[in-house]
Amino acid sequence: MTTQLTGQKMFLAGNWVKCDRMIEVRDPQDNSIIDTVPAASEDHMLKAIEEAKAGAEIAASMPVHQRMKIVNVAADYIEVHSEKYARTIASEGSKTIREARKEVARCVETLRISAEEARRIHGETIPFDQMPGSEHRVGYFYRFPIGIIGAITPFNDPLNLVAHKVGPAIASGNAIIVKPATVTPLSALLLAEAFAQAGLPPKVLSVITGYGSEIGDVLVSHPAVRMVTFTGGVDAGEEISRKAGLKKISMELGSNSPVIILEDADLEDAVESTASGAFWAAGQNCLGVQRVYIQESIMTNFEKAFVERTNQYRVGDKQSEHIDMGPLISEKEAIRVEDLVNEAIENGALLLAGGERDGAFYSPTVLANVPTDCTISKEEIFGPVVLLYPVSDLDEAIQQSNDVNYGLQAGIFTKDIEKAHKAIAKMDVGGIMINDSSDYRIDAMPFGGVKKSGLGREGIKFSVQEMTEPKVVCFKLSTH
User: Fold this and answer.
1) Rounded CA separation 466/211 (Å)
2) pLDDT-based confidence at 224, cuts 50/70/90?
3) What strands, in cross-sheet order, belong to the sheet with 409-413?
4) What pLDDT shows up at residue 353?
5) Is 286 designated active site?
6) CA atoms within 13 A on the CB side of 119
7) What is the arithmetic mean of pLDDT over 193-219?
């Protein structure tokens, strides 16, 4: 697809702003330039924060019905222009056009749920007379917006993961400044366009494009920014937590997701679900299936069927309706994945499928017998590679599943309710999917993990809780 090079502006406190320096946005498929965006300076970010101070007051004073209307109208705008949004996602990122359309649909859903949650920010009455001497006191608590939120978003879901931060922030009466991934900023700018069209007051939202090394520290460390919400890698998350200071932090930092296949599983369903979970968005998915533990009695049959399904994946032009998987986000990332696979093979792993790189493309890859001390078995691959391991029973599968420093989501395939409940109790993760892969998620559910997988929970209702604070009110009544 040929895209006209227009040169975008960034969205600074409700105004579309140019910069002297620009960043090239390239299609990872062929490295062609599809557009340019401003390379914001520290001064731009400081101005966005200063404007957001007033924006936070404006947002907090908006009645709930106004917040709901704005977020719903933004959702309507995206739905009407859904193909434009999908083509943008598929051009600047790794997703195929079919995957991109699903992301747009999810973004619309995310915003509509956000609008609904605006009406559900409730408090509770407090029985103060539970304490002797407080018989003549009554009161309650309610939740108030935190103020200015700084959001740093990743490349792999460049529209919906931005919506997961912007929708709840506006619904709960906050101002928000988004710093999108440098390689996929266009989708975030389109989200800002939707809110501008929906009548969001100026200063409530900014989308500031630029290099994290130049503007990221300003956003996360500024004392006026009362919360940082970040989706990305562990190293960056640890750096942010050191620099943020005393403020709320919400982080989703990736995973190394396991799926367990027991001998009573529906084999066909398990193969299809785990393959989809492993190779969606070229494996660049924090929920992506990375390790599969298969009971020994069905290992041969599962492995054969899984490899056959993997070899059926059609890799190629993202914009084609007939392609299942596109490139990684850059050739550099494809080389990184290639190096991880080669390290495992050199240490004794068996290559069952894939293992081939062509520029930024890396074929869907299946490995067996991967030593547990290999990097690829311990860390997040973030690429289209899945590891198959035989296990004797559920206990061994759970033990090996937990033997990493991540814990976002997991899956288990079994018809045995007792075994399902044992996995639920024993697996050290933020979510477990029964008879589904780790990759299943709806936008309304709490989403997050344990260990290195992050802090706090996303999912609109739960994000709203993170983005608000309780305030206690107590009336001392006259005894006369």
Assistant:
1) 27
2) very high
3) 350-353, 365-368, 385-391, 289-295, 257-261, 409-413, 431-434
4) 98
5) yes
6) 10
7) 97
Q: Which of 286, 333, 374, 380 is catalytic?
A: 286
Can you say whether the dihedral through the CA atoms of 142, 146, 152, 158 is positive or negative?
positive
d(CA 424, CA 426): 6
Please name which of 364, 365, 361, 383 lies closest in space to residue 317, comparing C-alpha atoms: 361
Q: For the segment 83-137, what is each residue's pLDDT rounded down to a tens digit?
A: 999 999 999 999 999 999 999 999 999 999 999 999 999 999 999 999 999 999 9
Domains of the chain with bracketed CATH: 10-253+454-471 (3.40.605.10), 257-443 (3.40.309.10)
The DSSP string of 241-293 is HHHH-SSEEEEE----EEEEE-TTS-HHHHHHHHHHHHHGGGG--TT-EEEEE
Query: Does the annotation count 296 as an active-site position?
Result: no
Nearest to 115 by CA among 152, 61, 169: 169
pTM over 0.70: yes
Which one is catalytic: 252, 303, 338, 466?
A: 252
From the list 377, 384, 343, 342, the residue with the least C-alpha distance to 360 is 384
Q: Rounded to an integer, what distance in angstroms lies between the CA atom of residue 85 and that of residue 194?
A: 11
Q: Using CA atoms, how far apart are residues 188 and 190, in angstroms rounded to an integer?
A: 5
SS3 of 27-73: ECCCCEEEEEEECCCHHHHHHHHHHHHHHHHHHHHCCHHHHHHHHHH
Residue 95 DSSP one-character state: -
Reading the block at residue 263, the tokens are: 């001998």
Contact 448, 252 (CB under 8 A): yes
Identify the CA nearest to 230 among candidates 211, 214, 212: 212
Average pLDDT over residues 76-84: 98
Q: Which residues contact 68 (CB under 8 A, 6 or more apart)?
A: 115, 116, 118, 119, 171
pLDDT at 1: 39
Q: Which residues pair with 246 in a beta bridge?
A: none
The 3-state DSSP composition of the chain as helix, strand, coil percent (nearest 5) reads: 40, 25, 35
DSSP for residue 144: E
DSSP 202: T
Q: In this predicted structure, what is the pLDDT of residue 6? A: 63
Two structure tokens written together for 460 = 């609109």
Is the pLDDT at 458 greater than 50? The verdict is yes
